[in-house]
């Protein structure tokens, strides 16, 4: 079991990895990792036990062994495709999605509107 400092360091590492993933990045993944990520993107957050249950329900020719599934989840976590919280059966996985950049147009539009409102207020005679 990891200590509190290890968990805090891992959380800080995850938070510092701000980019996350984009759907276009999925094409470069190996088949098992891509399959897991596609499922996680649909569900967004799942317990380890739920992921294992999903893997058991896959068709036999696509079903990974438990060791392969565990290794795939570990790889996806280390590469920041998934955010892992907790350990063992109580572990929870969440897709690490890329944050959208703020719109520069919106900032400019609001600034222009504020300027026009301020100018209009200066021109208006005070109302009684």
Task: Write a brief caption for the model.
This protein has 128 residues and is mainly alpha-helical. It has helices at residues 4-16, 31-43, 48-56, 66-78, 104-123, and strands spanning 45-47, 82-85, 92-95.
Which descriptor suits the 3D outline? elongated
Low-pLDDT regions: none
Count up the domains: 1
Give the overall average pLDDT: 79
The CATH topology label is Arc Repressor Mutant, subunit A
Order of strands side by side in the largest beta sheet?
A: 1-3-2
CATH homology superfamily name: Winged helix-like DNA-binding domain superfamily/Winged helix DNA-binding domain
Beta-strand fraction estimate: 5-15%
SS field, number of helical segments:
5
The gyration radius over C-alpha positions equals 23 Å
Distance between the termini: 72 Å
CATH architecture: Orthogonal Bundle
CATH class value: Mainly Alpha
The assigned structural class equals mainly alpha
Spell out the helices and strands N to C: HHEHHEEH
């Amino acid at each position: 079991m990891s200590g509190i400092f290890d968990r805090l360091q891992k959380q800080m590492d995850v938070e510092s990895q701000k980019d996350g993933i984009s759907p276009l990045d999925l094409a470069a993944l190996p088949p098992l990792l891509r399959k897991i990520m596609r499922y996680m993107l649909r569900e967004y957050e799942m317990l380890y036990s739920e992921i294992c249950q999903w893997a058991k329900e896959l068709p036999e020719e696509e079903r990974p062994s438990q060791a392969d599934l565990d290794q795939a989840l570990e790889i996806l976590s280390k590469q920041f495709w998934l955010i892992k919280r907790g350990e063992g059966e109580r572990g929870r996985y969440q897709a690490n999605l890329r944050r959208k950049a703020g719109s520069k147009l919106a900032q400019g539009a609001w600034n222009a509107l504020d300027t026009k409102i301020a100018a209009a207020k200066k021109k208006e005679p005070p109302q009684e």
